[in-house]
Each structure stands twice: as structure tokens, then as C-alpha cells.
Automatic annotation (TrEMBL):
The chain crosses the membrane at residues 20-39, 59-80, 87-106, 112-129, 150-173, 208-227, 254-278, 290-308, 320-337, 343-362, 374-393, 405-424. It is a multi-pass membrane protein. Its main location: membrane. It comes from Pseudomonas amygdali pv. photiniae. This is L-fucose permease. One of its GO terms (cellular component) is plasma membrane.
Length: 443
């Protein structure tokens, strides 16, 4: 039986069915940016010892990374608006590749600031990718399944994250690495040699990533993608970015969604960034052993996503978000209050309930924006800067309490209180639905 011709709604944003090869290729990009972000969690523990940093200073890894999202999201939206989602993705892949290449001069100079610059460039590329892919995923099929489709795309995220942690931790960390205490007892020359060796060990994962990015760039280039940018024959004249910004700014649900996404990303990054440090502190283990907890975290994240995808077949996405948010609060409270190794298990368990949060908040927030969808999506990507802000507060809180990692988890707990409030708001005030039948579209 032949598939029906690919069609779009009169406004030109959604399709009557999903083009599966293009969609799966798009989904694989979610794994690529997850690998980059998860390797940051390994780098935090690695750089802390290699550069002898405080918890506050290690948080700059995430700050440099997520500032890239903040500054580049609007330019990425302009590229989507002027050209296409595909062009935006290709630019993102090129910047990602260039950022990985910058790790090599950073390692040769052994300067922490150079590594932060490389991470900023990687994040700039990821900002292009996320601005395009998150919104594009919701549009590449029927409107009524847009949020579910984004959740499916995000299911690829934990595979990339687990790969990043596994490769990063088992290449960078060695059981023979000197501890911070041992480094302090060495002579200056011996300690410098050990630290330089640790810094050089960061390069191999990024060599492999460069090869993968080149392959992905080729595949995206030769694959045809639907436009999903609106039908100029039936839509009103295109408005400016300023007009779009003005409209979404006056949309209370959208503004609340941006705040919720800012806090969610901050909470997620905060939970993951300090998992290795929490396990080392509560379990008395080295970095390599503690990294198993971070790997388990991403496995839990995947399981939570799969369960959420099933629940959303029967429940409204906002209701799933609310229930998962409450369970995150309970587990984070346990992590803070219980002074033994089970606190680490609770922190890992939080990731089961992180799974649907990002795509669900994203889908609920941009739903119904119409021509403003691209600008709205870019503002949501800008809100990812929360991942660079909240870990700083966690680091400061930990340093102020003698390096106590447990108390630092108070920050993500407070974030989830607001996220639950947003979910309840969405359940009470559903977004208006855009109507329209389908019209044929040539590919």
C-alpha cells in the first residue's frame, strides 16, 4: 500500500505524516549534543584536579558552555528565518566541529581559559542545532502529536549522554591517577607533569567526535528535508523579529514556559554536574569509580523517557510533567537530608523523572505560536543558559558549607517547585489550537 503524499496544513508549518528517514536523522543529532553536554560533567571532575580548582571555579565549565547557547540562539533563529532548518543544522555542525578542534591548542597550552573558549564555541554550534532541531521535530508531522514527537526525538538524548560519559570517563580517568592529596605532596615539577598528563588525556574523545561530526554533516547535506516554515500563499505577510518578540512577550503562558525551561535546565545540569563529586564525597571513591553513578544516571534518564512516552498516550503532557516534577522534589529532598550513600542513589533516581521535562516544557510553550514559533523556539534555547547559572549557585553553596555537596542540591529542588507550578498552569489554561486542513506540498 502506497503512503499518502506528504502534505502540509494551510499555514505551512505541520505535515500530515512524518518523513521517517529525515526524522530519524534529525533525532540522531539529539544524541550528538547530549554527548557534548555529558562530557562536561566528566570535565568538571577532571579539571578540578588537573587545574586545582574550587567547586565554584569548576562551575565555569558549565557557564562557558551555556553562555554559548544564550548569545547565539537569536542569530540561529535569524538563519532559520532567512534560509532553512537544514542550513541552520549544517552551520551548527560546523561550529561544533571547530569547537572540538580547539581542544588541541587548549591542551598544548594547558590553559583553563582556552578550554572554556573551546566549550563556548561548541555550545554556539549546539545552539544552532537545538534552535533548529527542537522546533523542527515538533513540526515534522501532525500538530496534535508534536509534543510526543519531540519526546521521541529526545529519547536519543540519553544514548548520546551515556556514550559521552562512558568514553569521557574511561579515557580521561585512570585508576593510577594521583589524588588531589597526592598532588599536594609532590614537588612542583612532579605535580606539573602529572597535571599535564591529565590535561592531554582530554583529547582522544574529541578526536572521535570530529570524525562523527564529519559523517553527520555529509548525511544531512545529501538528505532532503521538508521546509515546515509556513505557506506564503495563505499566510499573512512575514513580520519582523521585533514584532514576533513583542507578541510572545505579551503571552503569559509563553513567558512562564521560558522561566520554567531556564530553571529546568539549571536543575538538570546541577543534578548531573555534581553527581561524581557527590559520589566521591558520600562513598569515599575515586573519580573513575564515581563516574559509574553518572553513567547510571543517564540510563535512568532513558528509562524515564520511555515510561513518559507511554504515559503521554493516555495522559496530558502537562499532567505527566507535574507528577514527574513532584517526584523529583521528593528525591532531591532525600538527597539533601540523608547523610549516607543512599543519598547518591536518590540523586541518580532523580534522572528517571527528568526524562520528559525539557521536550514537554518546550512543546507546551511553543504550541500555538504560529509564525512566531521560530522566535519562540530560539528564546527557549536561550533559556538553556540556566545550565550555566544554577551550577554556580550550587558551587558557591557547597564552598560556603565546607564543600558539602548535599546542601548544593537545594538549588535544583527549588527549581522544580516552579516547574510543577508551570505544569499546573498549563493544565488549567490550555493553549488555543490552530486549525486548518492539509494541502499538498512538493518535496
Amino acid at each position: 500500500m502506497n503512503k499518502p503524499a506528504l502534505q502540509q496544513t494551510p499555514d505551512g508549518f505541520y505535515l500530515n505524516r512524518t518523513p521517517w528517514f529525515a526524522f530519524l536523522l534529525l533525532c540522531s543529532i539529539f544524541a550528538l549534543w547530549a554527548a557534548a553536554a555529558s562530557m562536561n560533567d566528566v570535565l568538571i571532575a577532571h579539571f578540578k584536579k588537573a587545574f586545582m580548582l574550587s567547586d565554584f571555579q569548576t562551575a565555569f565549565v558549565q557557564s562557558a558552555f551555556y553562555l554559548g547557547y544564550f548569545f547565539v540562539a537569536i542569530p540561529a533563529a535569524l538563519v532559520v528565518r532567512r534560509f532553512s532548518y537544514k542550513t541552520t543544522i549544517l552551520i551548527g555542525l560546523m561550529l561544533y566541529l571547530f569547537g572540538c578542534a580547539l581542544f588541541f591548542p587548549a591542551a598544548s597550552t594547558a590553559k583553563y581559559g582556552m578550554f572554556l573558549m573551546a566549550l563556548f564555541v561548541i555550545a554556539a554550534g549546539l545552539s544552532f542545532l537545538e534552535t533548529a532541531c527542537n522546533t523542527y521535530s515538533t513540526l515534522m508531522g501532525p500538530r496534535e502529536t508534536g509534543t510526543r514527537r519531540l519526546n521521541i526525538s529526545q529519547t536519543f538524548h540519553p544514548f548520546g549522554a551515556m556514550t559521552g560519559v562512558y568514553v569521557g570517563s574511561f579515557v580521561m580517568f585512570k585508576d593510577t591517577d594521583a589524588t588531589s592529596e597526592q598532588l599536594a605532596q609532590m614537588s612542583a615539577s612532579e605535580a606539573a607533569a602529572q597535571q599535564l598528563q591529565m590535561i592531554q588525556s582530554t583529547l582522544l574523545p574529541y578526536k572521535w567526535m570530529i570524525a562523527v561530526l564529519i559523517l553527520m554533516f555529509i548525511l544531512i547535506t545529501i538528505t532532503r528535508f521538508p521546509a515546515c516554515k509556513g505557506n506564503s500563499t495563505v499566510s499573512e505577510p512575514r513580520t519582523s523579529i521585533g514584532q514576533s518578540l513583542g507578541r510572545v512577550r505579551r503571552n503569559p503562558r509563553f513567558c512562564f514556559g521560558v522561566l520554567a525551561q531556564f530553571l529546568y535546565v539549571g536543575a538538570q545540569v546541577g543534578v548531573w554536574s555534581f553527581t561524581i563529586r557527590l559520589a566521591m564525597q558520600m562513598g569515599g571513591m575515586n573519580e573513575r569509580s564515581a563516574s559509574w553513578f553518572l553513567l547510571t544516571t543517564f540510563a535512568a534518564y532513558f528509562i524515564g523517557k520511555m515510561i513518559a512516552n507511554l504515559l503521554m498516550r493516555k495522559m496530558h503532557p502537562a499532567k505527566v510533567l507535574a507528577v514527574y516534577g513532584v517526584l523529583c522534589i521528593v528525591l532531591l529532598a532525600y538527597t539533601i537530608l540523608v547523610p549516607n550513600i543512599t543519598a547518591v542513589y536518590a540523586a541518580v533516581g532523580v534522572s528517571v523523572f527528568l526524562g520528559p521535562c525539557w521536550p514537554t516544557i518546550y512543546g507546551l510553550t511553543i504550541d500555538g505560536l504560529g509564525e512566531d514559533t521560530g522566535v519562540g523556539g530560539s528564546l527557549l534555547v536561550m533559556s538553556i543558559v540556566g545550565g550555566g547559572v544554577m551550577p554556580i549557585f550550587q558551587g558557591l553553596l557547597s564552598d560556603a558549607n565546607g564543600g558539602n555537596m548535599q546542601i548544593a542540591y537545594s538549588v535544583p529542588l527549588l527549581c522544580f517547585v516552579v516547574i510543577v507550578m508551570y505544569a499546573v498552569h498549563c493544565m488549567r489554561q490550555p493553549q488555543p489550537v490552530l486549525g486548518g486542513s492539509a494541502t499538498a506540498v512538493a518535496q
